[in-house]
Each structure stands twice: as structure tokens, then as C-alpha cells.
Write a structure and sequence with these properties.
A nine-stranded antiparallel beta sheet has the order 1-3-4-9-6-7-8-5-2. It is mainly beta. Helix content is 12%, strand content 46%. The two termini are 17 Å apart. Strand 6 and strand 7 form a beta hairpin. It is built from three helices and nine strands.
């Protein structure tokens, strides 16, 4: 709870062909951090088909995380664990991994 009341808000950059369809941010407080990933305008991604916005649908779209957000992350909604690739002092994460099995990501970063 303190992460959202007192934590720092850090926007997450999104790169790639579907960058306009993703909203992502980090909340950080002291040594704790969470990453939130939410798809946008999902009906446009599947031409109106009733298809969840997960997995390879996201092609080469990538989250570019704020400085210092690296390591591992666990989606608290699904239990899926992902490794945050390192690019300098920043982490990156393909959206296809972040939203691999569930259309929303709520990750604890460790």
C-alpha cells in the first residue's frame, strides 16, 4: 500500500510497432518496486476479433524500464516470472513476455 501512497511514479517508455497500445509505469519506494503494464485500444489490435491481447500479438514491442529497474519480476496476478534484460543501467522487457498469458501485468521487481 505504501508504494502507491508514498512511492515515486516512474513512466515506462515503450518502443516498437505497437507502442501506442501500451501504458506502463513503475512505482518505487525505497527498495520495493512494482511494474504495471496495461494494454490500450485492444479491439484495434485484433481487427475486432474476440482475442485477448496476449503473447506474440505484441510482436517486437518492448518496455524500456527506468534506470535501476533490472533483475527479475514476478507477475502477482499469474505467478509468471520474467527476467528483465539489461541495457546499460536500464532494464527491458518484451511486451509479449509481460503479457504472455494474461492481458494485464502487475509485477513485483526483485
Amino acid at each position: 500500500e505504501i508504494l502507491f501512497r508514498a512511492g515515486e511514479y516512474l513512466p515506462v517508455a515503450v518502443a516498437g510497432p505497437l507502442a501506442g497500445h501500451v501504458c506502463a509505469f513503475v512505482r518505487r519506494y525505497e527498495e520495493s518496486a512494482v511494474l504495471v503494464v496495461i494494454p490500450l485500444f485492444t479491439a484495434l489490435l485484433s481487427d475486432g476479433a474476440m482475442q485477448p491481447p496476449v503473447g506474440e500479438l505484441w510482436r517486437n514491442t518492448t518496455l524500456v524500464l527506468p534506470a535501476g529497474i533490472t533483475g527479475q519480476a514476478e507477475n502477482l496476478l499469474t505467478g509468471d516470472r520474467v527476467a528483465l534484460a539489461k541495457a546499460g543501467n536500464k532494464g527491458t522487457l518484451p511486451v509479449a513476455q509481460a503479457l504472455g498469458n494474461w492481458p494485464v501485468g502487475f509485477f513485483e521487481v526483485t
